[in-house]
Amino acid sequence: MSGAKRHADGLHRCPWPGEDPLYVAYHDTEWGVPEYDDRALFEKLILDGFQAGLSWITILRKRENFRKAFDNFDPVKIARYDSRKIAALMNDAGIVRNRAKIEGTVNSAKAYLKIMDEGPGFSKLLWSFVGGKPMVNARKTIASVPASTPESVAMSKELLKHGFKFVGPTIVYAFMQATGMVDDHLVSCHCHGTTGKAKRRSRNRAAKKPAGAKKKPAKNAKAR
Question: Distance between CA 116 and CA 42 in Å, rounded?
Answer without folding.
Answer: 11
